[in-house]
Amino acid sequence: MSSTELRHTALDAVHRALGATMTDFAGWDMPLRYGSERDEHLAVRNRAGLFDLSHMGEITVTGDQAAAFLNHALVGDIASVGVGRARYTMICRTDGGILDDLIVYRLAETEYMVVANASNAQVVLDALTERAEGFDAEVRDDRDAYALIAVQGPESPGILKSLTDADLDGLKYYAGLPGTVAGVPALIARTGYTGEDGFELFVAPEHAVELWQALTKAGEGAGLVPCGLSCRDTLRLEAGMPLYGHELTTSLTPFDAGLGRVVKFEKEGDFVGREALTEAAARAQENPPRVLVGLVAEGRRVPRAGYAVVAGGEVIGEVTSGAPSPTLGKPIAMAYVDAAHAAPGTEGVGVDIRGTHEPYQVVALPFYKRRK
User: Fold this and answer.
1) Neighbours of 196 (CB within 10 A)
2) How far is 127 from 124, CA to CA, in rounded Å?
3) Which of 117, 165, 235, 240 has its CB 3.0 to 4.6 Å from that of 366, i.e. a possible disulfide?
4) Who's near 345: CB < 8 A, 6+ residues apart?
5) Would you say residue 210 lies in a domain?
6) 3-state per-residue secondary structure call for 211-276
7) Where are the alpha helices (DSSP H) in 8-152?
């Protein structure tokens, strides 16, 4: 494969038949949108949306010491995750910098699936392989073994129920169980990146088209629409969910990102980055670094990643993600700002948009919380 050749998911022909606008995302040719990204976004908030997430990186970890190994390699307490449950966690460098944020599913007593972001899958695979030395644990690259289809939104449980006899009512948030959907064997996980209820279905690539079509048909009466990466980004932004490369980078520790809760110092055994993270935790308590906040525009101009956040003529922070919010009807952004300007309601904060200081309101994250 040449370095410029994009990878295609098992659903590539389906996206093209639907008239999707495709884009290069982390080396994959992915659907950006099928029609209006605003319509796709609102469909997920109010009804349901169907996503191809097959670019995500699945890594299987097996062996008698799989739990102890993952406790060593990652910052979370993975050994305490029950079979059939999942956990949000991170993998850090020895200096505490975030290599990636991950979801880890415990599939069996000695089997786990680590799901990494597409852009970091190789980095995570390499780090895990290296860190597995000395443990009775095998790290396997399963990126080609899975297609990943997500159905998200308030109508998603009803749509999925019509295609499976799996106990969806008993399936909690951040849990996964093996089952059959439309006759296709799948790992059914109640996870997502939209701020809505929903499911992620891990299936063999050869079953992806069949499953996508069955979900499309089952969702016809419920207003289900295919959704691209563009609305996935605005959905996660409204839900205050971090995106690697924006809110999370190797230059930040989980404590800098306001996500220190994922670091479990009390777990058994040592873990990579413990010393640096202990210091980062102490620093964050004594002298908080910049804090991740929400910004809501008073005007119409959209802030973008990298734009300076200003107050009193001084730069006090930087935008990490920004977009028009279809739910709020105005532009929003996440930004790291000095602790002195981080309190919701702080006056006099703006974003430098091409030389003009546009006024913004500081708000607590998330911008949007679904009604339970």
Assistant:
1) 21
2) 5
3) 240
4) 361, 362, 363
5) yes
6) HHHHHHHHCHHHCEEECCHHHHHHHHHHCCCCCECCCECCCCCCCCCCCHHHCCCCCCCCCCCHHH
7) 12-17, 37-46, 66-73, 121-131
Q: Does residue 2 have a pLDDT over 70?
A: no
How much of the chain is helix, strand and coil, in % rounded to 5? 25, 35, 40
* 73 touches 272 (CB < 8 A): yes
Q: Do 299 and 372 lie in a common domain?
A: yes
Per-residue model confidence (pLDDT) at position 3: 53
- 211 falls within a domain: yes
Question: Buried (b) or exposed (e) across 81-111, using 16+ Cβ within 10 A?
Answer: beebbbbebbbbeeebbbbbbbbbbbbeebe
List, for residues 327-343, the tens digit of each pLDDT value: 999 999 999 999 999 99
Expressed as residue numbers, the domain containing 159 is 7-54+146-236
Length of the chain: 372
pLDDT in tens, 143-183: 999 999 999 999 999 999 999 999 999 999 999 999 999 99
Q: Please state the φ and ψ torsions of residue 347, each to the nearest 5 degrees.
A: -85, 160
The per-residue pLDDT for 356 is 95
* pLDDT tens-digit map of 279-321: 999 999 888 879 999 999 999 999 999 999 999 999 999 999 9
In one-letter notation, the amino acid at residue 238 is E
pLDDT of residue 287: 85
